[in-house]
Amino acid sequence: MTYPSLTLQLPPWIHEVIHEVGGDIQRSFVTDEERMGLAVALSARSVEEGGGPFGACVFDDSGHLVAPGVNLVVPAGTSIAHAEMVALALAQQVLGSFDLGADGVARQLVTSTEPCAQCFGAVPWSGVRRVVCGATTEDAEAIGFDEGPKPERWIDELQRRGIEVRLGVLRAEANAVLQDYATRGGPIYNAQTG
Amino acid sequence: MTYPSLTLQLPPWIHEVIHEVGGDIQRSFVTDEERMGLAVALSARSVEEGGGPFGACVFDDSGHLVAPGVNLVVPAGTSIAHAEMVALALAQQVLGSFDLGADGVARQLVTSTEPCAQCFGAVPWSGVRRVVCGATTEDAEAIGFDEGPKPERWIDELQRRGIEVRLGVLRAEANAVLQDYATRGGPIYNAQTG
Question: Average of pLDDT values for B28-57?
Fold first, then answer.
């Protein structure tokens, strides 16, 4: 038997979202709020397109967008394709390295919702030095998403590995996307009971 | 800018390893030890081929191999491509579903070493109902690998989600591969400090 490969590919509308925020003209996303604005815009467009309500981006320390990510669980047919995983993996493809800090540049992951257990566990191996979150774990769980078995002190766990964490950036805007998704009756696909 | 895609593809020698254990003739891997034998054989071949010392497989409840996985961090250029992630994602491609339990079949992940924080976090979303491990977290850490910030009671966390865990199957054989890797001076690539 020959085994299939897995390809994670961003949908074509990604570029429209980036264009709408001016991100395709080499602009820098200087503040956390500007960076989160793009992650939230990606999550909102994903919902409009029938996808999951999550967006994430990797930026370098000068605010240049390295790679965006959206939840591809349904289109790619795999539970590993959460927005953060996609952003991290594609940023690594852009840079040609499995370590986003290998060249000494401090990159960061900006995600529209606090990471679930899987994406939390992916952060230390990715090489990012900072994680910025919008909607909270409670916001995600309030609409039925399961964030999974994260360590209770997950922020401390990252910080003691030298990875800074900032929470609640544009939380209201990020949570509004989750609420919109719930209102539309979007499936809570990543809490499968098998 | 157009963003690259990520493709996870098994190396061609995967089929040789499966052939060597007779797994290409529709055999069933009935016992945990037979299943682990394949995962360990994959980890050993990976080391011989210059890769990381980890192998994993997804089996269905009758012992049919759904998909194998090896660590592809270096060849695929991404930190998300641990052996367990590859096996889960490719099994989902084989079955055409992001949920390995969607059809009611109880599938399981058999991994040559206990999962790190990332792969642990991936398990609840994958749809597997059982995880079987060979070498221990301590074995991996003894040669310098960092298993990351897993919850202290990670086994309980899986079990209370209905996912059975069995540890230490062919531990000596699995650990021998880790030791061989260390003796050869293999890089401890997933503990990058960025």
Answer: 96
